[in-house]
Design brief:
The complex is a heterodimer. Chain A is an all-beta fold. In chain A, 0% of the residues lie in helices and 49% in strands. In chain B, strand 5 and strand 6 form a beta hairpin. Chain B is globular. Classes of the chains: A mainly beta, B mainly beta.
């Protein structure tokens, strides 16, 4: 069963760049990697999705190396409101990991 | 409404009772997903519908859990003979087409507490 692995928690300060890495060793050829953000008492919310190399949108960048066995979510200049749990999802297997709890301090 | 709607938002029941949780997906979304989430854990996949049929029900934990989507829109998750271990937030999501490349839109969840 495909599984993703992420650090359990990370701390940062406002204005810093945060990079969260997920390993997905069993990713299949056609699988996409998707990242979600979740606040307490809410459902997860889509952040970004990619297949390979680099994808950037208005809130984040996603880096996927050539072997696709990992991906890195990059959040530029985090703010207090970015405090949340971040999940990478093996899209084909529909499996979420335990997530990375990001705490941003002032 | 514009988003995925789940009812009830909170349900408290007694051990052994039957429970139904409803999900109203975004209009036009053919794919619908059920997850459950326990405190401090990531969402756990239960079942995925493509239209009216269950494309993948491998996450249903046992035969007390059943889900339907008779007209390819609203879905109901049914739990028989509830147990205390069923207490969790049940999340529903929908996507336009399903498949590997697609954004899942989640509802706020239904919090089930089994006493």
């Amino acid at each position: 069963l495909a599984k993703t692995t992420q650090p359990i928690s990370m701390d940062s300060y406002e204005g810093q760049e945060v990079n969260i890495t997920c390993s997905h060793n069993n990713i299949a050829t056609n699988d996409y990697i998707t990242w979600y953000q979740q606040f307490p008492s809410q459902g997860p919310r889509f952040i970004i999705q990619g297949y390979k190399t680099k994808v950037t949108n208005e809130v984040a960048s996603l880096f996927i190396p050539a072997d696709r066995k990992s991906s890195t979510l990059s959040l530029p200049r985090v703010s207090l409101s970015d405090t949340a749990v971040y999940y990478c999802l093996d899209t084909d297997k529909l499996i979420f990991g335990t997530g990375t709890r990001l705490q941003v301090f002032p | 409404g514009a988003g995925v709607s789940q009812t009830p938002s909170n349900k408290v029941t007694e051990k052994g009772k039957y429970v139904e949780l409803r999900c109203d997906p975004i209009s036009g979304h053919t794919a619908l997903y059920w997850y459950r989430q326990s405190l401090g854990q990531g969402p756990e996949f239960l079942i995925y519908f493509q239209g009216t049929g269950a494309a993948d029900d491998s996450g249903l934990p046992n035969d007390r859990f059943f889900a339907v989507r008779p007209e390819g829109s609203v879905s109901t998750l049914k739990i028989q003979r509830t147990e205390r271990g069923d207490s969790a937030v049940y999340l529903c999501a929908s996507s336009i087409t399903g498949g590997s490349a697609g954004e899942l839109f989640f509802g706020e969840g239904s919090r089930l507490t089994v006493l």
